C-alpha cells in the first residue's frame, strides 16, 4: 500500500510531494498529461512563496531562472503606486514562467524520492476506514492510505467526493497566447499602452525566447474551457480591441481563463483531501493562484506526514482546512474586488478613484500588499502577542540565519535564553540556542511551516504546548 497518492502533478502536487518526502512518506504523483504543459499561466512568485522556497533550500535554483522586481502593492487592480516595504527578508517578486516553476518543483520532489507517473489519469475512487482505492483510465487500480486531489479547477477528485463548489460562474473570459509577432516592439508597446488606458484586461508584450505574451477578452464565455482557442480567434479579438493583430503567428500555447470564483465547501472527506485549484478558483488578478496552491501544500505536507507517521495530535489534520480555507476565501474576495475596480463602468470607477487616493497612505498600501504577498496571514493558534500565529521571517542569528535551520521540515525551538529543552520531542523538533537582535521574544516555537505557535521562557508552559502540534513526548 502506498502512503499517499497525489492526483495532479502541477506546482501544488509537486510541492506537496516534496514536503511529504522530507518525512520519509511513500508518495506517488499521478499526472494525467503525458508531457509537461508549455503554457505560461503564471508569471511569478510572491514574497511568502519565496520565503517557503528559502525555508527548504530551493531559492537559489529559482533565482537562477528568474528576475526579481520590487514587491509592495505595485499595481493592485492596475492602480500604479510606488511599492511599500514589507516585513520580509525577501521583499521582491520573482518573475519566473510557470513551466520553469513546475520543472524545478518536480526535480526537487524526484530528488527526494517521490515517484512520478505521467499519462496516468484518475477516473474513480472508493475509500474505507483504512485506505483509498483509486482507478486509472487504463483500468489499473492502486491503493493508498491517503489521496490528495491537486487536479485543478475542474477537479475530478472533488466531483467524485461530491463536494459542492459554490461561487459565481464565469461572466467574462480571456484568451491567453504565447506567440511570435511581426510588428516592431516600439509600435506594439505604444498600441498596447493606449488600449490599456480603457481596457485593463488587455495587454501584450515580450516574454522572452522571442515570444510575446498576449491577453485579450474573448467574445463570449465558452461552454467548454478545456477546448483551446484557435489562433484566428485570438487574432480576431486582438483586432477588435486594438485595431490590429500585431502580426501574431506561430503560437507556443493558446488557452482560456475566466473570472469564475468558487470555493470548495469542504477540503476533506475521510482519507481524501483537496489542495490548490481543486479547492478554490478565482481570476488571476494579483497573480495569487499558483502561490496559493504552493502555500496550501506547505501547510498540509507536515500535517499529513504526521498522520502517516503516527504521531499527529488529535485534529491536527483538520487544522489544514480550518487555516487554509479562510485564506482562500480572503483571496477570492480580493480578486472579486479587483475585478470590480477594473470595470470601465461609471459605478466601479467611483470607488476606484477613492481607493487610488487612499493608497497614498502607506498603511493602506501595506495592508493590500501583505494580502497579495501572503505575508500578513495569521492563523488562530490561541491568544497572545501579535507574532503568535504568524510566520516568522528569516532572521540573522549570531551563527547564521534562521531559514538555514528549517531545511528538514521539522519543528524548531529558537531559544534565546539557552535554558529551555525539547526533551521528549527531539525526533520532531530541533532546539537552537542562539540569539537575534531582530527577535523581541525570549524563545519561539515554530511549526514546520514556520508559523509561531508559542512564545515565552517557561519550560512547563512550553511542555504544555508542544503536544498540541507535535504529539505526546516519547
From TrEMBL:
Record's protein name: Rifampin monooxygenase
Transmembrane segments: none
Keywords: FAD, Flavoprotein, Monooxygenase, Oxidoreductase
Leader peptide range in chain numbering: none
Gene Ontology MF term list: monooxygenase activity
Cofactors: FAD
InterPro entries cross-referenced by the UniProt entry: FAD-bd, FAD/NAD-bd_sf, RIFMO-like
Domain FAD-binding intervals: 2-332
